[in-house]
Amino acid sequence: MKKITIAALVTLGLGGLTYTAIAQDDRGPGLQPRLEAVDVNQDGNVTMDEIAAHRAEKFESADTNGDNLVSAEEFEAFAEAEQERRRAERQAKRFAELDTNGDGFVTAEEHENAADERMERMFARVDTDGDGVITEVEREAAKEKMRERRGNRGFGRRG
After folding, report:
1. Which is it for the CA torsion 99, 103, 108, 112, positive or negative?
2. How far apart are CA 33 and CA 22, in angstroms?
3. Which of 51, 93, 100, 126 is found 20 to 30 A from 59 (Cα to Cα)?
4. 21 Cβ contact list (under 8 Å, min separation 6)
């Protein structure tokens, strides 16, 4: 009975890792690559059968000794590997965004241009009246907005 309970919990946990990642990315283009991974026949649609197959594949990946059970150690290793895979994907994507000419190197100019673009976007968000000056009122409003966003993500307030 204990093995069945553990197996059920682990299956839910493994599925949770995958589908939580998908759910968290419903705000932008990051969702598409994850859905493509679930879309086994690559027809652009995701069915419940494909989700079940993907979940089973994740379970098999975690069950490294093939006993159809996932131990706490296997689960931890699986979670760490998934986290590292996602980190590497984010890093590769960010590098590709910086390497605007696609030569495999980020030049000082590419880095500077990216930093300038980020700064301009941030400045424009804070300079709500668009007059080219960030006032104390705009700064405080931006801080409050950040606090609210952090609170909505469960990070709480910093003092």
Report:
1. negative
2. 9
3. 93
4. 34, 82, 86
- Residue 154 has a pLDDT of 54
Within 10 angstroms of residue 103's Cβ, the number of other Cβ atoms is 9
What count of other Cβ atoms lies within 10 Å of the Cβ of residue 2? 6
The Cα–Cα gap between 46 and 63 comes to 25
Q: In the chain, where are the structural domains located?
A: 1-98, 102-159
Cβ atoms 69, 63 nearer than 8 A: yes
Q: pLDDT (tens digit, 9 = 90+) per residue, 27-64?
A: 444 455 577 888 888 898 999 999 999 899 999 999 99
Q: What's the mean pLDDT when you consider all of the chain?
A: 81
Number of Cβ within 10 Å of residue 132's Cβ equals 8
